[in-house]
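Have a think about this chain, tokens included, and walk me through the fold.
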Amino acid sequence: MNAIKFPVKQVGEKLAFLLAIIPAVLTGILIIKYGVNVLFWDQWPLASMFEKIYAGNLTFQDLISQHNESRKFFPRLLFIGMAYLTGWDVRYEMLVIFILACLVSFNIYRLSLLTVGGSRVTLLMLACLSNLLIFSPIQWENWLFGIQVVVFVPIACLTSCILVAYSNLSLRIKILIGIVIATISTFSYANGLLCWVLVFPAIALAKPKASQELLKQKWLIVAWLVGFISNVVLYFYDYKKPPYHPSFSEALLHPIKALNYFLAFLGAPLAQNKLTVATIVGTILIVSFIGLVLYLLKFWHQNNLLHRTTGWLIIAGYTLISAAITTSGRVGFGVKQSLSSRYATFAVYLAIPLIYLTAIILEDASVRKIISRPSLTANRIVSSVLTILIFLHSITAAYGIEKMEESQVNRYRGKACLLLINVVKDDDCLKRIWGDTNEAKVKANVLNNQGFLKPKLWNSNKIEKSEGKQVSGLDYGRLDGIEQVGKDKYIARGWAGLPEKQKPADGVVLTYENNQGEAIAFAVASPGIKRKDVAKSLKNNAYRNSGWAKIIQLNKIPKAAGKIKAWALDADTGKAYQLNGYRRIAK
């Protein structure tokens, strides 16, 4: 068998291995750097689970209850267990996400060893290409949102089942493992049901004569159908379509809009949040896939081609069906919604099998003498794909990293306001981490009492109880001034930083001085205003957005209030550091 040679010659296996794992290493570093230990949106309802555990009335129905379109039974078990092990540090959930992505990467590589010809160097370089997509920062929402473990479970389950299908295990064991894993997939995320639809064909086609053996052991087919039907019945029992989601008829009523959504969904991981680029890339991917399928249809019965490509076709089918389902259920939100970073984890698994299908078909075509000068032609194709993929990936990766940084800043600001929720409740600020701020206060106190919030919520408006020890010689910021902007309305301005962390403060607490000389917190502000002068003065561009401003209503402070001061807040420690300067408000 003539193997396709990777265009980069004389690359050692060690170097190729290093290149293959670099995408994973870089993404792991990004998760560690930008992950924030604070509950975010869909994680807040999980607090109800701990209330019920504490009261001793958590039920199976609570664990399997519907959330949007999903029944997240197994992830909820994981979240509860990890919460008690880690004090509900959601960064450990991000670690699980990373581990699942590594599992998918390993499964993809193992599948390539079983189905793609070529040297170890060639396969490792192909793995490098696929890992650029698997670990792409364009999935920034999923990498930094612990509950998004759920979107990685189905593809991890599917690729694991495909490897089982290619193994030398007996059909009975394959079916049993498939039923267990497909059940886990189903009750982890909405599209996990696809495992039932896709894994059985993989078992039937991955190995020669497997389909004939299944026909001889029809009870295995019956067992699979029983498992599938049981899962579907349990899944859709008392199922209710989320009322705020668009109608499925939207796609039928607007087919052009739906097609645009479908194509943009597929191309989004390589499009830097640009709809036109995503649509073009999605179209190229679909056309390429159709071309490869047409080749397979012509020669599928020769050279074991069907068995070698089954796994890759199954993975591609997972993405195409996911894209179709998402289109039917989300196109009503608008075509632009197809670019959501959360969907990238589904969409990347069309480009990945295309990489390997191309390698298999080029190899097959060279054997059939369809391609003249096979090595040169194959190398040119691979080189072109490599260049385009790396170019598009570089652009989208830069965009994803930028969004990771924005996400970190946003969550730290929300966490800073959360710490003060019992002292100063700022709804606009709290909405950074959850929309229902009243419910957030209730749940935050429940979690705080159970030791799941770190640091703990402030329980006093006297800031001295949360004052941090300043490091001599470091500048934490300044209260520049307070000016009147209306009747009984003033605005305070300044800048604030955390010099030990070399970044703007996570929040700014405003205090007034009472009759006993104590600083009493009455408002919280979020840095984010550009202060080029500060960055220039400190010779550190990290402080470019360290400026802050806050409207002060006179009815928020006593008439006898003394000095107005400002404090930089560190959301990781819950400590506040006084800024330079103070002001008084003349009444």
